[in-house]
């Protein structure tokens, strides 16, 4: 399950991640990632699926699939990161499957993990 401690819920948390975070792009998604100081809560996820994506049913399906991807791959995520997943406008919600999301986001998450490891080795904040 997705515990409350693994969620971004407040607008200031989203704004901080949009403003200070790095961006990772795929064909259909953008990930905003902001590193935090080491936190016992670990990584947190926010989803920004707007009405431009489709109807409420379609938006909820996209969110369910994204949450499932991050749940299945939580062992790959850096422990001290806030992540916001945003689908691009041209994404067709009826085509969103776990396979498509995995194919697109797994390389981004791996790059994110490598970047976090490299930053920790260099001692940069």
What can you tell me about this protein's structure?
The chain is of the alpha+beta class. Helices cover 42% and strands 18% of the residues. The protein contains 3 helices and 4 strands; from the N terminus they run αβββαβα. The chain has a 4-stranded mixed β-sheet, with helices on both faces. The relative contact order is 0.21.
Structural class: alpha+beta
Shape: globular
Q: Numbering strands along the chain, what is their spatial order in the largest sheet?
A: 1-2-4-3
Percentage beta strand: 15-25%
End-to-end distance, in Å? 31 Å
Reading the helices and strands in chain order gives HEEEHEH
- Output the radius of gyration: 14 Å
Tally of helical runs? 3
Approximately how much helix is present in the residues? 40-55%
Which ranges are low-confidence, i.e. pLDDT below 50, for 5 or more consecutive residues?
Answer: none
Could you tell me the number of beta strands? Answer: 4
Mean pLDDT figure: 88
Short description:
With 125 residues, the chain is α+β, with helices and mostly antiparallel strands. It is 42% helix and 18% strand.
What secondary-structure arrangement, pairings included, does this model have?
Blueprint: H1 11-20, E1 22-25, E2 29-35, E3 44-47, H2 56-72, E4 81-87, H3 98-122
Parallel strand pairs: 3-4
Antiparallel strand pairs: 1-2, 2-4
Protein traits:
125 residues; alpha+beta; four-stranded mixed beta sheet; globular
């Amino acid at each position: 399950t997705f515990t409350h401690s693994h969620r971004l819920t407040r607008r200031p948390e989203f704004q901080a991640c949009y403003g200070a975070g790095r961006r990772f792009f795929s064909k259909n998604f953008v990930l905003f990632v902001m590193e935090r100081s080491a936190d016992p809560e670990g990584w947190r996820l926010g989803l920004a699926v707007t009405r431009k994506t489709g109807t409420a049913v379609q938006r909820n399906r996209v969110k369910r699939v994204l949450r499932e991807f991050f749940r299945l791959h939580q062992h790959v995520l850096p422990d001290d990161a806030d992540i916001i997943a945003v689908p691009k406008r041209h994404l067709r919600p009826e085509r969103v499957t776990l396979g498509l999301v995995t194919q697109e986001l797994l390389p981004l998450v791996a790059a994110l993990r490598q970047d976090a490891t490299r930053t920790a080795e260099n001692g940069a904040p």
